[in-house]
Amino acid sequence: MNRRRFLGAAGGVAAVGWWSRRFVELSGAGPVLPQPPRASVANLTLRAAPGRAAVGSTSLDAWLYNGLLPGPTLRVQRGEPARIRLENQLPESTITHWHGLLVPEAADGHPRLAIDAGKTYEYAFTVDQPPGLSWYHPHTHLRTGYQVHRGLAGLIVIDDPANRTRGLPPAERELVLVIQDRTVMASGEVPYDLRGPAMMAGYFGDTILANGTPTPTQPVDAATYRLRILNGSASRIYKLGLTAPARMRIIGTDGGFLSAPVDAEEIMLAPAERLDLLVDFSASAGRQVSLETRPFTLPQGTFGPGGMGRGRDMMRGRQGDPGVIMHFDVGRTTERSAAVQLDARPTVPLPRGANERRFVFSSMMMDHTINGMSFDMERPDVRARAGAIERWTFVNDGPVPHPVHLHAAQFQVRTRTGGRNVVSPWETGWKDTVLVAPSEVVTVDVHFGPHPGLFLLHCHNLVHEDMGMMLNVALDPA
Ligand SMILES: [Cu+2]
């Protein structure tokens, strides 16, 4: 069966008429933002299994890690060894990837390591990188999008022992937030229907879930909070903003802290990107502040406005639709925020004579390729060296945006030409995922981690990834 037919056939509920669907009930004063329970990685069993997860007035027919949506938040200290046993109680094969962690090949969750239903996989690795927010999710051949969509995803926080001396908010004013969009039926089913425009633009759900909850309301003091945000959506990009006076300062991104906080009015967050944010609510005491995603259009590339690239699906909305993610009810208790001292991973200039490579991301006629190639599990496509520094250029010559993700490395975004034509403030730190919109050319300086082996470069629009927009990166020993 070819890749496209397989995805279409296996995509979940087949034909669902709009008349049988309804939006998950929304209420103005919903539940608070649930915080996933924390788990240590010292001796962790992560069980992937079918389950139910309460979502608004219904319950999702889900696949979950340890019964939770999102899964438990793994808290780890730098230098701490992780021993994690993955138990696959799903009806199909799976494997878990630790997105953002620099781990040995055997622990990276390459799809060729997937285990059958009923089997277990033992992960052993040591976390040795600066504090920051990473996450974990399946990386199963052809099935990543479906398995994440059913609910398999969770956060990893590399803790920072120096939090308080940096002037950052205390633990009780730190919130994690996973943003995902899903269409949830009254029955609890979550159709993942990839026919038509979805095969080009990706999956778009009609409800935005914040830690699995539609539009929660979080009570906060009129003080500074730390929000650690993951866009865990398959395809949807969010343009984050606040509805009432509240100052947003970016302190970190995928790979850890920026060198200094950067103020922002709006922040664009593509699938798999993370954000470490300070929000000062002191100007909105006694008011409600909403975190919203604002409308946007990206350049449309070669199809032009109104083409397939807009991915308009009558019922599910499309890229750039506005929506409310959650509310904050700001109390009267005020507290002045302290001066913030960050500690960024140092920048290293590109060495003379560094390798340069170019990758062209193309989406045409519902085929998604990199340099004309579709993913082959065994074929090494790029050979580089562990520990090396290289300059890579990502080119989007098609009509749909691609959040480009590289395993086993962190990179720094250097330039963006075409399209938005700017490197945004939230892209200035160390990253592992960067949005390359239509017509854009983005150069990054890649710093490979210390581990040799077979790793991946791919689009993190999970629909594109499963349709083959992925290459193998073979790292030789340093
Ligand atoms: Cu893509």
Give the helices and strands, then pairings.
Elements: H1 3-10, E1 38-40, E2 44-55, E3 58-65, E4 73-77, E5 81-88, E6 96-99, E7 120-126, E8 132-138, H2 144-149, E9 154-159, E10 174-182, H3 198-201, E11 207-210, E12 213-214, E13 217-222, E14 224-231, E15 238-242, E16 247-253, E17 256-264, E18 267-269, E19 274-280, E20 288-293, E21 323-334, E22 356-364, E23 367-370, E24 380-385, E25 389-396, E26 402-406, E27 409-417, E28 430-431, E29 433-436, E30 441-448, E31 453-459, H4 462-466, E32 470-476
Parallel strand pairs: 1-4, 2-5, 4-9, 10-14, 13-21, 22-25, 24-32
Antiparallel strand pairs: 2-3, 5-7, 6-8, 8-9, 10-11, 11-12, 14-19, 15-18, 15-20, 16-17, 16-19, 20-21, 22-23, 25-30, 26-29, 26-31, 27-28, 27-30, 31-32
The structure holds copper (II) ion.
Copper (II) ion binds next to loops.
The N- and C-terminal alpha carbons lie at a distance of 39 Å
pLDDT < 50 runs, ≥5 residues: 1-28, 303-315
Q: Estimate the helix proportion, in percent.
A: under 10%
Largest sheet: 7 strands, mixed
Specify the CATH architecture of the largest domain. Answer: Sandwich
Q: What is the total domain count?
A: 3
CATH topology of the largest domain: Immunoglobulin-like
The amount of beta strand, in percent, is: 35-45%
Bound molecules: copper (II) ion
Number of strands: 32
**Content-based structural category:** mainly beta
**C-alpha Rg, in Å?**
21 Å
Multimerization state: single chain
